[in-house]
Write a structure and sequence with these properties.
Number of strands: 14
Shape: globular
Bound molecules: thymidine-5'-phosphate
Number of helices: 6
Strand content: 25-35%
Order of helices and strands: EEEEEHEEEEHEEHHEEEHH
Distance between the termini: 10 Å
Structural class: alpha+beta
């Protein structure tokens, strides 16, 4: 079988050239990393679950008119997406203080924020993805003021929808990270699409009653029961693979 061209290998995913021009295959690995890859490990079955969870959330977002890169799921660990030009920003939306916001501003984790707050981080591993302002972004040309307006509006719509989606399964959406890309249609008209993934790797998800963490913080903070937390999110969303947890290994072969 012809080997596929590997375009990029990241910490949790591999990207391959897709079967048609303008498409990419996203392969979800079980590998996990935190603190700019200072901590690494494996969360068994994570790739299979994240593939499903991201598919599910992106499809629901599509239904309410949010343009996403998602085309279709191909198999246990792979999905076909539109090839986009990634905007080098991580867009974080926060509803409840946690993580770096709590550390930076001295706000106790779990404190509800007066309103949802959108932050931008410059995607640069050498600099550990620093927090940046709109001034930096437009001055250095990472995105235009119009791109920023579009991303901010989309991020807030995604937040409103996802807060409700997760609340419906007794989960509080504390915060999450989005990435966007530029995509050109057949008439060379540029649109901004939601790209990358939406999974427990990129969100903070707390049980609504107990505040139990159901996300990657369990790995970052060595809390144990990491696999179980990812499974619990998938179970509540009604998308655990048919054969249950024993079906999570999926194929390990990537080429
Ligand atoms: P933070 O509190 O570490 O800044 O993270 C905020 C949210 O963004 C949290 O849900 C985790 C997510 N995130 C990523 O998905 N990737 C990253 O590289 C970082 C720093 C955060």
């Amino acid at each position: 079988m012809a080997r596929r061209r590997r375009i990029y290998e990241g910490k949790a995913k591999v990207l391959y050239e897709g079967p048609e021009p303008g498409t990419i295959v996203q392969y979800f690995k079980d590998d996990a990393s935190a603190f700019n890859a200072q901590k690494t490990g494996v969360i068994s079955g994570k790739g299979v679950l994240n593939n499903r969870i991201s598919e599910y959330v992106m499809l629901r977002l599509n239904e309410i008119g949010i343009p996403t890169h998602f085309v279709r799921r191909l198999n246990m660990r792979e999905q076909l997406v539109h090839e986009v030009e990634i905007i080098p920003l991580e867009v974080v939306v926060r509803n409840v203080a946690a993580g770096t916001m709590s550390q930076r501003l001295g706000i106790e984790e779990g404190t509800p924020l007066p309103r949802s707050i959108v932050e931008f981080y410059y995607k640069n591993d050498d600099l550990s993805d620093p927090l940046v302002t709109e001034e930096h972004i437009t001055a250095f040309g990472w995105a235009t003021p119009q791109d920023l307006d579009d991303m901010m509006a989309l991020a807030l719509r995604v937040n409103d929808f996802m807060v409700g989606l997760f609340l419906g399964v007794d989960i509080r959406l504390v915060d999450f990270k989005l990435e966007f890309g530029r995509w050109y249609d057949d008439n060379d008209y540029m649109r901004i699409l939601l790209a990358d993934e939406i999974t427990p790797d990129s969100c903070r998800l707390w049980d609504i009653k107990t505040n139990e963490k159901l996300d990657k913080d369990r790995f970052r903070r060595d809390m144990g029961n990491v696999e179980e937390a990812y499974q619990e999110v998938a179970r509540r969303l009604g998308i655990l693979p048919d054969a249950g947890p024993q079906d999570l290994k999926g194929t390990k072969s990537i080429n």
